[in-house]
Amino acid sequence: MQFPKDFIWGAAAASYQIEGAAAEDGRGLCVWDMFSRQPGKVWRNQNGATACDHYHRFREDVDLMADLGLQAYRFSVSWPRVIPAGTGSINQAGLDFYDKLVDALLEKNIQPWLTLFHWDYPYELYCRGGWLSPDSSDWFADYTAVMVERLSDRVQHWIPQNEPQCFLGLGHVTGNHAPGMKMGTAEAMLAVHNSLLAHGKAVQVIRAKAVLPPVIGTAPAGKVCIPRTASAEDIAAARQATFSNTTKDIYSNSIFTDPLILGHYPEDCIQVMGADMPKVTEQDMRTICQPLDFYGVNLYFGHWVEATEHGGWQPAESVIGPPLTTMEWEVSPAVLYWGARFLHERYKLPIVITENGMANTDWIHLDGKVHDPQRIDYLHRHLREFARASAEGIPCLGYMQWSIMDNFEWGHGYKQRFGLIYVDYETGRRVPKDSYYWYRNVIKTNGTEL
Ligand code: GCO
Question: Which residue in 228, 367, 377 sits closest to 303, CA to CA?
Fold first, then answer.
C-alpha cells in the first residue's frame, strides 16, 4: 500500500479519559465529574478521577509514544484545569501541565495536535446555561485565547471541538453522556448553533494570535454510509444518505460541517427542523464559516445503504452475523474509503482520520503479553481502505489511531479497552499490546507493507 511521503502517523487520547488528578493543582469541576457521581450513569459507577493517571505519568507515556515512533499525538486540554470556573482567572499550574507535555512531545519529535474541547465542559459554565447561553461562544473564544497565548509558539495543529454530534446529541438530547440533559429540539438546535459560533470564534482567535502558522481542522463524528454494492445507484444512495437530514436528530455530518465549511445549514435540515431552527443571522454564518486547513473525522464504523427504486436510499443489512467489536460496532473498514471520498467531494479539504480503532477483550496473557490480533486486523483493513482513497487522488494527510492507551470510555467506564497500550488501572502499569508493535512497523515503513 502507498501512503503519501509526508503522511502523518499518530494516535489520540482525551483529557478526561486519561489524565486523572481531578482534584489536584486547582483544577475546576467538569460536567463529567458531576455526571459520574450520579448512580447508574456510568458502568459500575466509575469515573475519571484517577483514570490512567497520565497527569503524573505523562513522561512515561511520551517515552512510550516515542518508542512507538509516533509522529503526532492528538490530545485535548481540560478547560477547567486551565480556567477552573470556565471564565476568569487562570490556573497557572494547570497551564503548566500542558506546557510540559508539549515540550516533552517536541523533545521526541512528536507533533502536538491540540483539541481544545473534548467534552469535559466546565461545570460552573454548565450552571450558567452552558451551550444555551448567548455568551457560550465568547467563553470558548476567551479560553482559546489563553491556550493560543501559552502554546502557539510550539503548537501548530489545532482542533477546536471533538464530536459536537456527541457532546450535544448524547450529552444534551438523549442524556446518556454528561451533563445528562434531555432537551427538546429547539434547545438542542440552539446549543448546536452556539457551539458552531464557538468554533468560528475560536478559529478567528487562533488565526489572529498564533505565533506559528496554524493548521486548523475538525473532528466530528457523524454518520458515513457505505454502498451495499459497487453499483452507481448504491454509491449515489450512500452519498445522499451520508449527508441527509430526515429526522430531528442532530447526528449528521452536514448539520455541523455545512455551516463550518459551506457557510449555511443544509436545506433539508432547515426543512425538517422547521420552527425548531434557531434564529440565524448572516453575520453568525460569516463567523461560523472560517477557512480550515483539513477535514479531520472520527470514523469507527459505517452504515450500509442501498438505492431504492425511486432514486432514494434505504438502510441495508451487510451480512447475517457481522464481525463486531466489544462496543458491538460492526467492523466495516470501507467506511474509511467512502468517508474520505464523500467528505472530500463535498467539503474539498484534505482528510485526516482523527480517530479510528476498536475496543477488544484485552487482558494480560499467561506469557505476560497482551495479544490483540483482532485490533491488528481491524487497523490493517481500515488503513488499506484509507490508502485506497489516497491512491485515487484524495488528499489524505494523516491517521490518528484511537487510542494510544486504554482509558475511561465515558458511560462504559473502564469496561471497553481501545488502547495500543494496556493499562492496569490498579497499579497504573502500562503494557504495550501486540498491536503497538505492529503499528510501530507500519509507521516505520510508512504503511508500505500493509
Ligand atoms: C468518541 C470520542 C472518544 C471515544 C472513542 C471511542 O469518538 O466518542 O472522541 O472519546 O473514546 O470514540 O468511543
Answer: 228
